[in-house]
Amino acid sequence: MADEEEFTDLKEEFEKFKDEFESGGLAAVASKIKSHLEDMDNVQLNIAITGESGSGKSTFVNCIRGLGAEEKESAKTGVVEETMEPTMYPCPKNPNVRFWDLPGIGTSNFQADQYLEKVRFDQYDFFIIIASERFKANHITLAQAVQKMGKKFYFVRSKIDADIYADKTQRKSSFDEKKTLEKIRQNCVDCLQKLEGGSPSVFLISGIKLHLYDFHKLEETLEKELPKHKRDAFLQALPNISLQISEGKRKVLRARIWKLAALSCGVAAVPIPGLSVVCDVAILVRELRLYYNTFSLDDESLQSLAQRVDKPVEDLKSVIKSPLAKEISSDVVLKLLMKAAGGGLMVVEYWVSTIPIFGSIAAGGISFGTTYYMLKSCLEELAEDSCNVLKKAFETEV
């Protein structure tokens, strides 16, 4: 029904709404939850991507948003500098998470000493500084300026796949990928020794193959260092390219379930014919669509992944089992609620005995339990489908 970690989190969450439970019951809690969720949905995250011209900034901006180079929303890429002014690119999964492709440093139009002011550095939450070869004086100048502003920055060494290919071609008998990567990393660290506070972490990344090398380490580092509300927004916006990311998305969405169940049962709720449940079906439809899109199970995301791994999209769709892949509508949700009624009663009985505060909403317990059980079941189904799609795409435990 729920693991120990989940109930620990739920107890802590319920404590935050204790006063509302005691004074106004489920309706009061639902009202506060609605305001809380609206605030969370409107969280903005602005990420600056900068570095020298030709370092792969625009490619990185596209790939981290789950796009190729030729799609309508893609940043322009090419062998010459395409970015002449700060350009904002929203994530398709969450437009409030925005990557800013900044002009290359050291170009004829943007010299390092004028660069910081012209790109309006103060508007970004953090900075990713990209180099495709070695880090140079311009990169250190940027990092030092960011340090003075009290903001975070992360160094990314791009085009690692090209380096690996070149080294493998030149050293056919003695090639060792692990040693090559370590050599590149150490070179980057040596170049950044002049930074105050010592050399920072360097992430080795292929812009067109994010599932390889250090992208997962970068993602995990950002998860740890971002404030929770921005961390959740960032994670939901990422393309679903690894099992680790998929699991992170599942945890973020799971934490919303009890709030959505309470909201559905406590605000503008209506009786469901033939079922002792009162809820707002429209809220549940929107949440299930959020799950579906966050796990990149929509047609556009699947098509993009299929192109990236050079496989027919039908192969990826063949491992999707959830009926939600065909339709997410009010009629479908009503059928799911009917199916979940028995499980909802078990949820209520278990929670009343486990979380004392829950007893204060016993009047709405059946409705709450049913919607909670339905959302949780659907989340687990879609999370499993997303994992199966990834395994099919990469034919490995990504």
Can you describe this structure in just a few lines?
This protein is 55% helix and 10% strand. The chain is built from 16 helices and eight strands. It is globular, with a radius of gyration of 24 Å.
Which residue ranges are poorly predicted, with pLDDT under 50 across at least 5 consecutive positions? 359-363
> What class do helices, strands and sheet pairing give?
alpha/beta
Tell me the span between the first and last alpha carbons.
Answer: 27 Å
Q: Which sheet architecture does the biggest sheet show?
A: 6 strands, mixed
Share of helical residues: 40-55%
Extended strand count: 8
Written as H for each helix and E for each strand, in order along the chain, the element string is: HHEHEEHEHEHHEHHHHEEHHHHH
Fraction in beta strands: 5-15%
Overall geometric form:
globular
Please give the count of helices. 16
Mean pLDDT: 80
User: Strand order within the widest sheet?
Assistant: 2-3-1-4-5-6
